[in-house]
Amino acid sequence: MSVDKNNFFSNLKYDFPSGLVVYLVALPLCLGVALASTGRPDLLFSGIIAGMIGGIVVGSLSGSALGVSGPAAGLVVIVLNALDTLGSFEAFLLAVVVAGVLQVIAGLMKAGIIGYYFPSSIIKGMLAAIGITLILKEIPHAFGYDADFMGDEAFDQKDGQNTFTELFNAVRYSSTGAIIISAVSLGLLILFDKPFMKRIQLFRFVPGALFVVITGIFLNILFANLMPGWALSGDHMVQLPVASSASEFFSFFKSPDFSALNNVDVYTIGLTLAIVASLETLLCVEATDKLDPYKRSTPTNRELIAQGIGNITSGLIGGLPVTQVIVRSSANIDSGGRTKMSTIIHGSILLLSALFIPAYLNYIPLASLAAVLLMVGYKLSKLSLYQGMYKLGKEQFMPFIVTIIAILSTDLLKGIGIGMVVAIYFILRKNYKHSYHYIKENHRDGDVITLILSEEVTFLNKGSISATLDNLPDGSTVIIDGSKSLNIDYDVLEIIQDFKKHSAPLRNISVKTIGIDEVAVIGGH
C-alpha cells in the first residue's frame, strides 16, 4: 500500500475525521498534563498552547506522517521540580526555549540515529504497556472517580494513590451517571468499528468519537433534568479556561523571563528537558512507524529539529514543552489518518475551539472521552500481540514482557531502561554463543579442530573465544580461520596471539591461523 501525499483532497476525507478524533483525545490530556505539571488552574492554557504548537508547528515541520506531538505526561515531574527550582513560570519558559535550541542542535548533529538502537521487542512492549496503562488509568474516569489528572501514566500518583488503589476507589466511589455514559460510549465505539458501519457513507467521514461525545453531552443534560443525582459536573467534565474578552484570552499567553539568562539552573533544566523529551520522541517515532499501516519511515534527525523549533515556539508564547506522544499518535492511526495533515488539523481545531467555543467544550463529560481512550488502549494491547511475541521465542518475549511489567510499575523511561537491560543480556548471550563455528575432526595423529570466526568479532566475544581455547584438548591441532571476518577487535586478536605464543606450546597444541593479523600485545610478555 502507498499514500499519494501530493493529492491533498483524496487524503482529506481520511485526515479530517482523524484530526477531529485526535483533537477530542488531546483536549482533556492537554488540560490534565498542564494541571499536573504546574499545580495552578490559571496555567491550564499552557497545555492547550503546547497542543496547538505540537499540531501546527511540529506537524508542519516533521517528516512523521502520523506522529502527533503535544504536552507529555512523562515530563510532569521534571516540570514541577523545575518550577520549584526556578521560582517562576516565566523563567521556566526560558528553559523550554533552551531545550528547543539544544534539540535543534542535536538534530543538526545527526543525533536522531539513537532511535534506531531500541530493539523491536522493547518498542512493542512499550506499546502494549501504554495500552494497559490507558485501560487501567481511564477506568476511574469512566466510573466517575477523577481524583487524578487525565493522561497520567505513572504508577505512583500525585494524589498518594497508585494505579491499582485508584481502581479500588473508582469502584467504591463510582458515579451511576458516569458509568451509563461510558458504557453507552463504549457500545457506540464498538458498533462504529464494525465493517457494515464503514459502508454507510455518512460514517466514513464522521468519526465515531464525535457521536460518542455528542451522546455523552445529551445524556448528561438528560440526567440534569430527569435524575439530578446522576448528572456530572466539575472535575468530571472538560474544564477549558473561558475568557470573557479578547484581552483576557491573550493574557493566557505568556513570555519568557529573559532576565533569567544568567541563571545556571535555566540551562541545567533546559538540558534535562531536551534529553528526556528527545528520548520520548524517538521512542514514539519508532513505535508510530511500527503501527503505520503504510510502513513509512520517519527521518529522526528532522524530527528532532521539528521538536526543537516546536519547543522554542511553545516557550516563547507560554506553552509547556512538547514531545511526540504515542497515545495521540495511535489514536490518529486507529482513526484512519493518512498524512500529517491530520496532525495539523487537530492543532488547528484546538486553536479555533479555544478561541470561539470554550464554554461549549466544557459540556463534554470525561466519561465519554475515557471510553475513547479505553478503545485506543485495547487496540494497543491486543491478545494477538502477546501470542505473536511468544511464538518468536524467549529472546524476543522476555524483553517484551519485562518492559511491560517495568513500565506499569514505574514509568515510561524507567520501564524502557529496565527492558533494555534484559534485551542487552539476550543480545550478549547470543553474541557469546555465535561468535564462531566449531568443527572437530578425529585423526590418528590427534584431534583437528577448526574455529571459523564470524563476520563481526567484537570485544563482546572475548569470553566465549577465550573459554573455547582454554577447553581445547591437549595435543590437538587447532586452525583459527578469520578469512571470512570483516572485522576482528584488537581484544580478540590479543587473546588469539597470546594463546598461540604462550598457552598452546605449554599444552602441546599446534596452532595455525588464517586471515588473522599479528598485533603488538601492550603490557604483555
UniProtKB/TrEMBL annotation:
The keyword Ubl conjugation does not apply. InterPro entries: SLC26A/SulP_dom, SLC26A/SulP_fam. Its main location: membrane. It is a multi-pass membrane protein. The lineage of its organism: Bacteria, Pseudomonadati, Bacteroidota, Cytophagia, Cytophagales. It comes from the Bacteria. It holds the Pfam family Sulfate_transp. This is SulP family inorganic anion transporter.
